């Protein structure tokens, strides 16, 4: 964490995405598949802004692009602190990425709305 005060929390770091990918095609009695498991290192950035008593807005990013592909996982969230330990929240998240290499070309983009409940120990 490189900034932590009563209004802002800013963090930077890294994470690992472990992906289990399989591409399968079937037509009548003919089928083919290609599976692959890989580890993808990602840059992590997060910001939390406490803009009112008990309320905060959170931005979370994990991603990296280069070489044969890319991965981006981005979320924005509005959170309310019910107590010092219990929070509820809701937000939007998108996950985009894929690979373009000698054996596969595959990209996907997913969108989510979510609600969350958190408890701090």
Treating each run of at least 4 consecutive H or I residues as one helix, how many helices? 0
The secondary-structure class comes to mainly beta
**Helicity, in percent?**
under 10%
Count of the domains: 1
How large a portion of the residues is in β-strands, by DSSP E?
over 45%
Order of helices and strands: EEEEEEE
Sum up the overall morphology in one term. elongated
Please state the CA-atom Rg, rounded to the nearest Å: 19 Å
Q: What is the tally of beta strands?
A: 7
Short structural summary:
With 121 residues, the protein is an all-beta fold.
Description of the structure:
With 121 residues, this protein is mostly beta strands. It has one domain (3-15, 40-119). It is 0% helix and 83% strand. It is built from no helices and seven strands. It has strands at residues 3-4, 8-27, 30-52, 55-66, 69-81, 86-100, 105-119. It has a seven-stranded antiparallel β-sheet, with no helix packed on it. A hairpin with a 4-residue loop joins strand 6 (86-100) and strand 7. The protein is elongated, with a radius of gyration of 19 Å. It starts with a strand and ends with a strand. 2% of the residues are buried.
């Amino acid at each position: 964490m490189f900034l932590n005060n009563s209004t802002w929390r800013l963090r930077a770091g890294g994470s690992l995405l472990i992906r289990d990918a399989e591409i399968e095609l079937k037509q009548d009695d003919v089928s083919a598949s290609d599976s692959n498991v890989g580890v993808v290192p990602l840059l992590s950035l997060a910001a939390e802004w406490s803009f009112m008593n008990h309320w905060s807005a959170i931005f979370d990013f994990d991603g990296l692009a280069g070489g044969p592909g890319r991965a981006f996982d981005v979320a924005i969230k509005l959170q309310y602190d019910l107590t010092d330990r219990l929070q509820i929240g809701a937000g939007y998240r998108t996950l985009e990425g894929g690979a373009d290499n000698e054996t596969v070309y595959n990209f996907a983009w997913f969108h989510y709305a979510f609600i969350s409940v958190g408890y701090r120990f």
